[in-house]
UniProtKB/TrEMBL annotation:
The keyword Mitochondrion does not apply. This is Serine/threonine protein kinase. Keywords: ATP-binding, Kinase, Nucleotide-binding, Serine/threonine-protein kinase, Transferase. Pfam families: Pkinase. The lineage of its organism: Bacteria, Pseudomonadati, Myxococcota, Myxococcia, Myxococcales.
Length: 285
């Protein structure tokens, strides 16, 4: 039950609509109806994330949600989702409030039924790799990069969300079972080392981002080298119509190599390579 009076930093809200349910959490759009929190002004709309009913009593899941909140509290970047508040009406249920985005990049691909312009993919890729370089510097890996977790603001800016599920992405995970019944779900984006062991370093995120950017550029999932999870992309993703396109194909192949030490090693390097490809797109072939 809600308190009769708000404490500093708290607010009250109404759920407007359900936005989606993932492996661990559910997200709802909310509208602030009363607030003593300057980050959550009355009348504004945000998104609330909490554990879904299946996992709400699971200690490990609750711990991961708490770690996700701690990570978002520490990070501040234009291409990482912004945390606005945590359990802001003082109840016992753990949840957090974040900016409300327009749609996911998965929704964008599904709705337009075509690939994104390569210039857009390179711009987004440069921005997202810069955000991930920042996160890695702060000590955070994502481990679950895919179009579903790259959201778009109303201005079209891509932001990375869902920093909690990645610890559950591996071949024996109970969390992923509902996500993979169609064959190529979350595991399609997963590096081989993470799939086999549940662990990866920065190059695990490099792999997943590479697979995601390839999907943006093709408009659909690009076939992997083999049926094995984490086998990478060896074919050209886009036609070699320019030096920029050729360089992009090379970048994706190096980002998604199945052997971690043979990938591009850092997100800083990924950003540089993608910016180079973008500059080549502006030059005549």
């Amino acid at each position: 039950m809600l308190q009769t009076s708000l404490q500093s930093g708290q607010c009250r809200f109404r759920v407007v609509r359900h936005l989606g349910t993932g492996g661990l959490g559910r997200v709802d759009e909310i509208r602030i109806i009363e607030s003593l929190n300057p980050s959550l002004p009355q009348g504004a709309r945000f998104a609330r994330k909490q554990l879904n009913e299946q996992w709400a009593r699971e200690p490990t899941a609750k711990k991961r949600l708490a770690r996700e909140i701690a990570a978002l509290r520490q990070m501040e970047h234009p291409n990482i989702i912004t945390l606005r508040g945590v359990s802001v009406f003082g109840g016992k249920d753990l949840f957090y409030v974040m900016d409300l985005c327009h749609q996911s990049s998965r929704d964008l691909l599904r709705n337009q039924r075509s690939s994104l312009p390569l210039r857009t993919v390179l711009k987004w890729g440069g921005d997202l790799s810069a955000a991930l370089a920042y996160a890695h510097e702060e000590g955070f890996l994502h481990r679950d990069l895919k179009p579903d977790n790259i959201l778009l603001t109303r201005h079209g800016t891509p932001v990375i969300a869902d920093w909690g599920l990645g610890y559950f992405v591996h071949q024996t995970s109970r969390v992923l079972q509902p996500l993979t019944v169609a064959g190529m779900g979350t595991e399609y984006y997963c590096s081989r080392e993470q799939w086999l062991t549940g662990k990866c370093g920065e190059t695990g995120d490099v792999y997943s981002l590479g697979i995601t950017l390839a999907e943006f550029a093709r408009g659909e999932q690009v076939p992997l080298a083999t049926e094995a999870v984490g086998s990478g992309i060896t074919d050209d993703v886009v036609p070699v119509s320019s030096r920029g396109a050729a360089h992009f194909n090379s970048i994706i192949k190096r980002m998604t190599h199945p052997v971690p030490r043979r990938r591009i090693q850092t997100m800083e390097e990924v950003e540089v390579e993608l910016r180079v490809a973008a500059s080549l797109m502006r030059m005549r072939a």
